[in-house]
Automatic annotation (TrEMBL):
Gene3D superfamilies: Rhodopsin 7-helix transmembrane proteins (1.20.1070.10)
Chain ranges passing through the membrane: 12-33, 45-65, 85-112, 132-153, 193-217, 238-258, 270-296
Protein name as catalogued: Protein CBR-SRI-21
Keyword vocabulary terms for this entry: Membrane, Transmembrane, Transmembrane helix
InterPro entries: 7TM_GPCR_serpentine_rcpt_Sri
Gene of this entry: sri-21
Amino acid sequence: MKISFETPQWLINIYHIITLISILINSLGIYLIRFQSGKIDNFKYFLLWFITCNLLGDFIMFFMTQPIPLLPIWAGHIHGPFWSIFHIGTHMASVIGSVIMGQQAAALTMCFVRKYQAISKLDSRNEIRNNWVIFAASLTHVLIGTWIVLYYFSGIDRQTALDFIQLNYPEYYSQFVSLDDFQLYMKNGITHWFISAAAMMAITFTSIIIFCTVKIFQLLRSLENQISDGHLKRHKTAVTSLLAQLITSPVAFLPPVASGFLLAFDFEHIQFISWILLAMTSCHGTINCLVMILTCPPYRVFVKNKILKIFCVEK
């Protein structure tokens, strides 16, 4: 086992570049949702919530935090302004980032719930009342809150971490001592509960999304002869766009899952692979917003027309 304690400058550069791109793309997405959405009732505010979380998530995780894992030891430190300027430690910065990640998941889930409610209003026999939407929103936030609280208490203090390193990895003790700040996680009851809460959250959110998607397509099929083709197409397009964004969402959770898998098999170059996975994850917010723009005709047409106008090309 070999661990590098040098800061991977190429990874920091990727964080900076991707964060800048994310700010530009997601700001465009926020503008499109706010001013180019047309009449899609308050569903656009749920979508706005999701894209805003994308922007905040990328900015906090990959500019303010800049995480650097020290696998195969389940530890790491941060390189961004959270520590260098504000002296917010690795664990607290990770907790803040996890809050935003949880909000991203909740926002995407609630987009499906709100779209299901909007379509159900077209059929009075299957209309979903606001109480169910409030219940779904409350459930998602209770699960997120539980997950965050357990994650917060899974952190250990510096001295306990150093004692653990000295006992189990004495060859790296001096390097850990030289770090101004780092966080180490141990296998204990809290971490087991934290992982269980994360699994429960993922299962619940996925179940809600699958349920809403199935019911949406059932409703649209039954309403084909009752609403206009334009109205039907608009709803189908919105659902397709949400599904496309859902498909890209696992990129955000790839590093911990893949790292845990590689740890189980004692992969030799796990630290370098974890850096690559984090570089991929930093693209998540940008990809999500691009998918939204490309799969929503009003947004796609607006951007296309602006690009053509800039380059003075006639349609």
